[in-house]
Amino acid sequence: MVVEIKKVGVIGAGQMGSGIAHVCALAGFDVSLSDISIDRIESGLASINGNMAKQVQKEIITEDARKAALDRISPAADLDLLADTDLVIESAIENEQVKRKIFAQLCPLLKPEAILATNTSSISITRLAATTDRPERFIGIHFMNPVPLMELVELVRGIATADSTFEVSQAFVDRLGKQTAVAEDFPAFMVNRILLPMINEAIYTLYEGVGSVESIDKAMKLGANHPMGPLQLADFIGLDTCLSIMQVLYEGLADTKYRPCPLLVKYVEAGWLGRKTQRGFYDYRGDTPVPTR
Ligand SMILES: CC(=O)CC(=O)SCCNC(=O)CCNC(=O)[C@H](O)C(C)(C)COP(=O)(O)OP(=O)(O)OC[C@H]1O[C@@H](n2cnc3c(N)ncnc32)[C@H](O)[C@@H]1OP(=O)(O)O
Ligand SMILES: NC(=O)C1=CN([C@@H]2O[C@H](COP(=O)(O)OP(=O)(O)OC[C@H]3O[C@@H](n4cnc5c(N)ncnc54)[C@H](OP(=O)(O)O)[C@@H]3O)[C@@H](O)[C@H]2O)C=CC1
């Protein structure tokens, strides 16, 4: 059993995977960052570089710490390069088949004692664990977006997760300087079980013409003191991810109250996924975001 995590593999160099690599490297871990293409890894590294530069500018970290952390991150265009890691955190898209395929390729390459974690927002840890060769060393380590700024990490145990896996994961999150909240393994865990129905309801509020994009966001920012309006937050999370989470809630809890709003489905079908595609409930292609409805 691994007693100390030294090297971390991160699969998926999107907004979450790069954020996870960012905080791991700053905390002193060696990191291998993987994705399906070297271009994607390079764009992840560029965003880590830019985000660390902001932290230097704000005197949150020193320039020396930034350089040292960047040196600790190596690109891993091939999953073979994760063979010497002690912990792998999978953070590819929120699609169960994609995650299963990654685990099937990855598991034979890993050290037997390595811990395999997923950053899934909603998918059953028990079900994902059962597709691997190490259900007792499998766990949900669910970071919040943007990772460098958000304090919370949800820890989710599957039915087979060993106590030692949980303890090592808890110690790992402590070393990142983040707080944990422990959730049982039910669809979308805690944060998204509560947050996503709120976002979905905001989209229904738009769909039914109760308010415009701007007025709904303004209402929740000024009326409920949320840092971002729900539609702005949906764009920030990614509308594809929001839809996947609602589908997991709808199917997993078999309750119509979780029915994804048809307008959310339409945006995803259009490829308007929010900030990452420059268009969602707002259009981000100009200097300031413009509502699309
Ligand atoms: C879907 C899931 O599975 C789970 C989830 O994550 S759900 C989403 C959870 N996250 C939220 O709900 C976030 C809600 N929003 C917020 O809390 C805030 O708007 C926020 C923390 C994102 C920003 O807070 P803010 O008060 O606007 O702070 P602000 O001072 O403007 O921004 C902080 C700075 O951090 C910077 N920053 C943003 N992302 C960053 C990152 N990844 N790394 C480093 N710096 C970053 C910003 O650029 C900004 O710097 P500048 O002002 O120089 O541009
Ligand atoms: N967005 C959020 O607010 C949060 C998301 N999460 C979870 O984190 C995970 C990642 O989300 P997020 O970073 O937002 O998504 P992004 O779309 O930003 O990034 C996903 C990355 O995974 C890559 N990818 C796709 N298929 C594979 C594969 N087979 N192997 C390796 N990489 C692959 C994508 O490449 P390409 O672009 O080329 O397809 C992309 O770079 C999801 O499980 C999500 O639910 C958790 C907390 C918050």
UniProtKB/TrEMBL annotation:
UniProt keyword annotation of Oxidoreductase present: yes
| UniProt keywords, alphabetically | NAD, Oxidoreductase
Question: Which positions does the site annotation Important for catalytic activity cover?
Answer: 142
Q: Which InterPro entries match?
A: 3-OHacyl-CoA_DH, 3-OHacyl-CoA_DH_CS, 3-OHacyl-CoA_DH_NAD-bd, 3HC_DH_C, 6-PGluconate_DH-like_C_sf, 6PGD_dom2, NAD(P)-bd_dom_sf
* Gene3D superfamilies per UniProt: N-(1-d-carboxylethyl)-l-norvaline Dehydrogenase, domain 2, NAD(P)-binding Rossmann-like Domain
An annotated Gene Ontology molecular function = oxidoreductase activity, acting on the CH-OH group of donors, NAD or NADP as acceptor
Top-rank taxon? Bacteria
Query: Alphabetically, which GO biological process terms does the record hold?
Result: fatty acid metabolic process
Residue stretches making up the 3-hydroxyacyl-CoA dehydrogenase C-terminal domain: 189-284
List residues binding NAD(+): 12-17, 35, 94, 99, 121, 145, 276
Check the record and name the Pfam families matching this protein.
Answer: 3HCDH, 3HCDH_N
The chain positions of domain 3-hydroxyacyl-CoA dehydrogenase NAD binding read 7-185
| NCBIfam families per the UniProt record, alphabetical | PRK05808.1, PRK07530.1
| Family of this protein | Belongs to the 3-hydroxyacyl-CoA dehydrogenase family.
PANTHER family noted in UniProt: 3-HYDROXYACYL-COA DEHYDROGENASE FAMILY PROTEIN, 3-HYDROXYBUTYRYL-COA DEHYDROGENASE
The name under which this protein is listed is 3-hydroxyacyl-CoA dehydrogenase
